[in-house]
Amino acid sequence: MTGALLLGGTAASLALQNPATAQIAQNEPGAISAAAPRAGAPMSFADMVAKLQPAVVNISTTQKVTVQQQANPFAGTPFGDLFGQFGGGGGGAPVTREGQSLGSGFLISADGYVVTNNHVIAPAAKGATVESITVTLQDRKEYKAKLIGRDPTSDLAVLKITSPTPLPYVKLGDSTRARVGDWVVAIGQPFGLGGTVTAGIVSAVHRSTGQPGPFDTFIQTDAAINQGNSGGPMFNLNGEVIGINSQIYSQSGGNIGIGFAIPTTEAKPIIATLMKGEAVKRGYLGVGIQRVNDDIAGALGLPKDQGEIIGRVEPGGPGAKAGLRSGDVVVAINGEAVTPDRTLSSLVANAAPGSTIKLDIIRDGKRQSINATVSTRPSDDQLKVINGEGDDDDGLPDDDSGAQATPGSSSLGISVQPLTPQIARSIGVDSTVQGVVVAGVDPSSDAGQKLKRGDVISSVNSQPVRTGADVARIVAAAKAAGRPSVLLNLTRGRQVNGFLAVKIK
């Protein structure tokens, strides 16, 4: 699903009111109650939209993009000068071109603070720089905007425009009160068409899209959201901003009725920090995690959707110093349960760097508690380096270096062999990794759908394995105990290790 997500939404922030002006929020209770449609199936959104639309703006940027030209293939020939005149020359020298981006946003104060998505005002490509940002109001007045702050992790940004008169604005509501089935209205600037209003319902709350990081909780809606809606507000029928339209799920680039908005409750503290010109700091444990899905829960004998499992512990990181181990299942932080709605990433991110948190974990089937002092979460780019993201090519020599594959377990549908230093080098895994390497899989088995040749299995059901006999023994014990599957600690190429539940045949 993540691969088909397209940026296309909005951001939110704290509303500020300048006491020196008489301007009030466009969605003050007294101003909007008479205009809001009655509860249930509304006859029209027109009166409500008329009050709210003036606070929604168009945001455009002008950018300079440096492009590396291809070298003139006819250089040194009689045709070299001719083709050089038409863009084929230049010896591959870079050229600078102009670019633009369009999106939406909304005013949150009478003195000109604007909230939008970070991706709306960020460079659109590698080598691009943003030259200027323009905010256009509904009355077509244009203002040059100053970037006050941005946070790529949450995809939020705050701009500031200056006007001689107070500006129309809206306040943020409480997104925790949104319920599936509630009416919502989205206002934005899709495809640069100008103010566009769409309506629908809340399709889901606490929706996870499978993206890594601490901010993967969205409000899902079927209100039409398209490219260019990014940064625009999602309103409830009280005229409150409950979401910032941010992404769409689409295989064509157009709306198919699945859009996502950043909940305002998640956005408020971030926007408050950005408005002060400060960087957003988040807690960090230095661990790789996975959700405990049905298969993993079955392999561990745990209830489903209870906690998240530690797949990797960064050496020297806060988690390692606290004694966390690969295979630990974290079920609560500071007494708050880890669930699909409140993930481990989000709970840790909300902890202040330098603070101590209490983690309730399940290790070897027993519950215990440990304390960890969180550090400051690195940037997304730094995390990619730490996590060793890369390709997952097999890399295993065709002849397996002459080694004979031994049956790992016919009950799993795989054959394995001991991982030697030579094989480790050929498949690109770290020299510190130990285990068995998958030499073959039965395509008709569950393993055949999940594993591939060259995968390294370090443990099965938290027990280290070094030979095929080790794997067979542990699988046989799990089968005798009535377990439907076993949990493999897996490493694939240069990627970080993680856990995978595989059904027993």
TrEMBL record:
GO terms for molecular function: peptidase activity. Residues 271-365, 408-493 form the PDZ domain. NCBIfam families: degP_htrA_DO (TIGR02037). Residues 389-401 have a biased composition (Acidic residues). This is Probable periplasmic serine endoprotease DegP-like. Its EC number is 3.4.21.107. InterPro entries: PDZ, PDZ-like_dom, PDZ_sf, Pept_S1C_Do, Peptidase_S1_PA, Peptidase_S1C. Belongs to the peptidase S1C family. The keyword Thylakoid does not apply. Residues 376-415 are annotated as: Disordered.
